[in-house]
Amino acid sequence: MAVHEHSRRHVGFRWPSLRGAGSARPAEGAEATSVPAVRSYAFAGLRLVTGFVFLWAFLDKTFGFGYATPSGKGWIDGGSPTKGFLSGVAAGPMESTFHSWAGDTWADWLFMAGLLGVGIALVAGVMLRLAAVAGTLMMAFMWLAEWPPARHLSDGSPSMSTNPFVDYHLVYAVVLIVLAVVGAGATWGLGKVWERLPVVNRNSWLR
Fold first, then answer.
1. Could you please report the per-residue DSSP string of 40-66?
2. How far apart are CA 10 and CA 6, in angstroms?
3. Of 23, 60, 138, 194, which residue is the least packed, with the fewest Cβ within 10 Å?
C-alpha cells in the first residue's frame, strides 16, 4: 500500500498579524496602510478613555456614587462640585481668589458644563478643537489651584508635590491638544459625519 505524505496545514484559530501569514513579507501597499490604521486606532482609544475620565467626573459629582463624591452629597442632592476642592486650595498666587469662588453657583455650573461638554465631545469624536480649548483652560485653573511649584503650603506644611511643573493636569491638556491636532474623531467616532455638516464646513473651529 502506497502512502502519500501531504503537507500539514493548520486550520485552527490564528491570531491576526499586521505582517501577514507566515514569514512572507507583506506587500508594500499593505504595510503602508497598516501603520496609519494602527495609529488611528491608538488615538481613538486614547480619545475614548480620556472622554470617560471627564464623563465619570461629571456623573460622580452629579449623583454622588461614593467614589470622589460621597453618597448623598452629589450635585442633585444640593452639594457643590467646587466647594470642597476650591476651599481646600492651600498654595499659589490665586489661593484667596479660589476660596472666594468656592461653592458659587456660576463656578459650579461652569465647571460641570466643562466636564460634560469635553466628555461628550471626546466620546462622540466631534468638536475636538473646542474641547481642547475648554479642557486646557480647565486643566490650567486646576493646576493653579494645586500649584505644584510650591514646596510648602500656606500653613508651612510640606506640599508633597511630586513635580514642580508637570502633573496630571498638564498631561491631560497635552492629550486634548494632540487629539484635536490629529483629528482623532474620525475613527470610532462621528468625526467624519460631523465634518460633512454645512455649518462645520463653514466654521473650521467647530471640528
1. HHHHHHHHHHHHHHHHHHHHHHHH--S
2. 12
3. 23
What size, in residues, is the chain? 207
Buried b (16+ CB within 10 A) or exposed e, 128-151: bbbbbbbbbebbebbbbbbbbebe
In the chain, the percentage of residues whose pLDDT exceeds 70 is: 84
Shortest CA distance to 123 belongs to which of 201, 189, 77? 189
Nearest to 172 by CA among 205, 113, 132, 204: 132
CA distance 103 to 58: 16
Q: In Å, how far from its chain's centre is CA 72? A: 27
Q: What is the pLDDT of residues 54-92, one digit of tens each?
A: 999 999 999 999 999 999 999 999 999 999 999 999 999
Q: What percent of the chain has pLDDT over 90?
A: 79
Q: Which of 55, 20, 52, 45 is nearest to 34 (CA)?
A: 20
Element (H, E) at 180: helix 168-181
Distance in angstroms (rounded) separating the CA atoms of residues 137 and 124 = 21
| Residue 158 β-bridge partners | 152
Ramachandran region, residue 78 (left: φ > 0; alpha: ψ -120 to 50; beta: rest): left
